[in-house]
Amino acid sequence: MVQSFFQRNLQFNRSFKKKLNEQLMKVGLYHSQWSIIYYLKQFDTTTLVEISNYLDVEKPTITRTVNRLEEQQLVVKIPSEDKRERRIQLTGKGLALYEEAKQIVDAFERSLLTGIPDDDQKKTVEVMQLLLEKLK
Q: Where does the HTH marR-type domain lie (predicted)?
């Protein structure tokens, strides 16, 4: 049962990202870019380290993705009082793209959850949160 649970979770995550990428391509984004844009919308300005910690992704990977977003004029780096630290925030173009992508993501997620009772959804989220806490 345990192996099956985790194997199914891995399969779901791969399939979910693949299908989500197909949807996000409508606005020229990938899941990795969307994750950062979503985070920035929630927290306004942040650092590469904060994004890296939140997404549990190595800082060089986050740096490359943020640089691509900056080239697309979706984010801007803002100097901070600490010269070693740069804060990042969404641009107006980035905020507009967030709104467009959010509609796509919401519709995609709603389509997946259709027919799954609310109690089952809630229990799944609770179990995933418990497992995530055990990994930290």
A: 1-136
CA-CA distance, 108 to 130, in Å (whole number)? 25
CA distance 18 to 39: 20
Which residue, chain included where needed, has tokens 């980035």? 94
CATH class of 17-135: mainly alpha
d(CA 48, CA 121): 32
Q: What sections of 44-117 are H helices per DSSP? A: 48-55, 59-71, 92-113
For the chain, the domains span: 17-135
The predicted-structure confidence for 60-117, as pLDDT tens digits, reads as follows 999 999 999 999 999 999 987 877 778 999 999 999 999 999 999 999 999 999 999 9
